[in-house]
Design a protein that fits this description.
By secondary structure, the chain is an alpha+beta fold. The strands form seven sheets. Strands 23, 24, 25, 26, 27, 28, 29, 30 and 31 form a nine-stranded antiparallel sheet that branches. It has a six-stranded mixed sheet with strand order 5-6-4-7-8-9, with helices on both faces. A six-stranded antiparallel β-barrel has the order 11-12-17-15-14-18. Bound molecules: guanosine-5'-diphosphate (GDP).
């Protein structure tokens, strides 16, 4: 029977270990269970289990599979599998819904704009939010909005105004930190930013920071010139100062794109209705829309652990509608809407687009900025959440896609043309300006260099946050990052470059753009410990009971776990304890418990070696001459 090719069979095992020829394609969603994959492939679940068992992997019928496994299994049964995220599935579903013209559930309707208030400290952000909340609660609503759930909705009413009757959502956490943290996590919730400037104080450093953040997010700005009730108020000075920074008041802009300025007093409640009216008008330019007939998609604004109520999250429903008893995933946890409350503390059964709601019924705490997605049923929610949790450890997705000078050329290759955003901090105004100009001029056909902030002073947390949210690189010229900023940069994977000679910096940029900049790392050995015992602690995971044999193990160091000379794990220490207490470091001769994140394959006799990684500056001289 030479040349015999077995016919494709869609049930039962493929012949021997020979995969079937690929004859079809399937698309599955992340975290699909064995059972559902079997259905997709038209085979029995136990065939998948058997096939995986042959490669040494034991799975159960309801277990979620990761993308690699799905692809392998599918290939064995003659299919090539594309694995998409749940967000992508929803998007596909949305496209299908739109094509399905007969479906009346998918009608698009305008939704209320969502507004964030930013500005310098003490310029009146909180007062303004409070004043708007108190004056715009419809009559007859006893008590008004007393709940602070992170956002509230008001109705604008003014006789004769075309915008009368429209609603606006205000995010109740003023300031650019919250805004940028959300954005750094990929959440885009704000439609309009209000920059509050006190008319008696004028433009201040945080005013400028707020403008940078709003611009980087490409969100329209309205300026509220506050405290005009004060005798020393000088709104014209504020306008001039901001016009110098590119925010030209509409009345001066003459045809060009102007910014709406509204003179208000939060304290005396002057022109608050005008501000609301302007928000409606500015919102009309983009005219945000939503589809209440779809399953809800939103973002977490706040989450807290409440005595008696468990994990409670404020969710801003951005599209679709959320209903009582809907199952959802949020971040890597999931749940079912057991109860919902609006910003007035009233229990509600449905929340449409642009509605902030408090949601009860979470399995565990999500983070602010996490996406909230309603899914068809609880099993699906659970399996996706499980899968994401599993993936979280190795995949810090957002971070790996973050730009770095070393990775720049690769990203250009993938993206074609790339915008490279820079934040430049320096020691004197003159050098910062020269740098900003000279770097911007280095733009090529492939890389557009865009300086999104430049200023004098050390690199702050705010710089790093802006960089994280805008995928920018931070350049320090004769300045260093503050300690907290350095920590945050490491956490967020933001690339900070420190230089003191302009042409070296330019060389580095040039090489990065050509893809010639290699990161140079050095591992510095710190110490070694032997595993004496292995403890399996419910909910915590596996802990290696060790004795340090040499040097030191530190809480913040990196480690390698080796068995008989073979390296099985490399990563960070996730916990370090002496007896029951957390320890910063444990030295030679002492015993300790070490947790290795989710890594659990630890055995007695394994060796744990600790080290720190140091990034060395690239040798630009050698690189330049190598290229020449
Ligand atoms: P935030 O730090 O920007 O949130 O500022 P606050 O809302 O806490 O206000 C700072 C101070 O300015 C408080 O003492 C307020 O009472 C005062 N303030 C806020 N708005 C006005 C206003 O319109 N007029 C006057 N006179 N004072 C105001």
């Amino acid at each position: 029977m030479k040349g015999f090719v077995p016919p494709p069979r869609y049930s039962g095992m493929p012949y021997g270990n020979e995969p079937l020829p690929i004859t079809r394609e399937i698309t599955v969603t992340e975290g699909i269970s064995v059972k559902n994959l079997a259905e997709k492939l038209g085979i029995r679940a136990k065939d998948i289990i058997a096939s995986l068992l042959m490669s040494g992997v034991f799975v159960t019928v309801n277990q979620s599979l990761d993308a690699e496994m799905v692809k392998d299994v599918a290939a064995k049964f003659g299919a090539s599998a594309a694995v998409i995220s749940y967000e992508e599935e929803l998007e596909n579903q949305a496209i299908e819904d739109v094509l399905d013209v007969g479906n009346t559930d998918v009608v698009e309707v305008p939704r209320a704009p969502v507004v964030t208030v930013m500005g310098h400290v003490d310029h009146g952000k909180t007062s303004l939010l409070d004043a708007i909340r108190e004056t715009n609660v419809a009559e007859g609503e006893a008590g008004g909005i007393t709940q602070h759930i992170g956002a509230y909705k008001v109705k604008f009413t003014k006789e004769g105004s075309p915008a009368s009757g429209r609603e606006i959502v205000f995010l109740d956490t003023p300031g650019h930190e919250a805004f940028t943290r959300m954005r750094a996590r990929g959440a885009k919730v704000t439609d309009i930013v209000i920059i509050v400037v006190a008319a008696d104080d004028g433009v201040m450093p945080q005013t400028l920071e707020a403008i940078d953040h709003a611009k980087a997010a490409e969100v329209p700005i309205i300026v509220a010139v506050n405290k005009i009730d004060k005798p020393e108020a000088n709104p014209d000075r504020v306008k001039k100062q901001l016009a110098d920074r590119g925010l030209i008041p509409e009345e001066w802009a003459a045809g060009a794109e102007g910014t709406v300025f509204v003179e208000v007093s939060a304290k005396k409640r002057i022109h608050l209705d005008l501000l609301l009216e302007m928000i409606c008008l500015v919102s009309d330019i983009k005219a945000p829309k939503a589809t209440p007939g779809r399953k809800a998609v939103g973002s977490v604004l706040e989450a807290k652990l409440d005595r008696g109520r468990g994990a409670v999250a404020t969710v801003l429903v951005q599209d679709g509608a959320l209903h009582l008893n809907d199952s959802y995933i949020v971040g890597n946890t999931f749940g079912k809407v057991r109860a919902m409350f609006d910003d007035r503390g009233r229990a509600i059964e449905e929340a449409g687009p642009s509605t902030p709601v408090e949601v009860l019924g979470l399995e565990s705490m999500p983070d602010a900025g996490d996406t909230f997605l309603v899914v068809a049923d609880r099993d699906k929610a659970k399996s996706i959440a499980q899968y994401r949790k599993m993936k979280e450890r190795d995949a810090q997705l957002a971070k790996s896609s973050r730009v770095s000078l070393e990775g720049l050329a690769e990203q250009i290759r993938q993206a074609g043309v790339k915008d490279l955003a820079l934040i430049i901090k320096g020691d004197v105004t003159g050098s910062v300006e020269v740098l900003a100009d000279s770097l911007a001029q280095m733009s090529t056909e492939k890389v557009r260099i865009k300086v999104i902030r430049s200023g004098v002073g050390s690199i702050t947390e705010s710089d790093v946050l802006l960089a994280a949210a805008s995928n920018a690189i931070v350049i320090g010229f004769n300045v260093r990052p503050e300690r907290k900023a350095a920590d945050l940069a490491q956490q967020e994977g933001v690339d900070i470059r420190l230089h003191s000679i302009i042409y070296e910096l330019q060389d580095e940029m040039r090489l990065a753009m050509m893809g010639l900049l290699e990161p140079v790392f050095r591992e510095n050995y710190l110490g070694r410990a032997e595993v004496l015992n292995v403890f399996r602690i419910p909910k915590v995971g596996v802990i290696a009971g060790c004795r340090v044999q040499d040097g030191v193990i530190r809480r913040d160091c990196e480690i390698k776990l080796t068995r008989d000379g073979e390296q099985l794990f490399k990563g960070k220490v996730s916990s370090l304890k002496r007896f029951k207490d957390d320890a910063r470091e444990v030295t030679n001769g002492m015993e300790c418990g070490i947790g290795l994140g989710g890594f659990s394959d630890i055995k007695e006799g394994d060796l744990i070696e600790s080290f720190s990684t140091e990034r060395l500056a690239a040798d630009l001289g050698a690189l330049t001459s190598a290229k020449a």
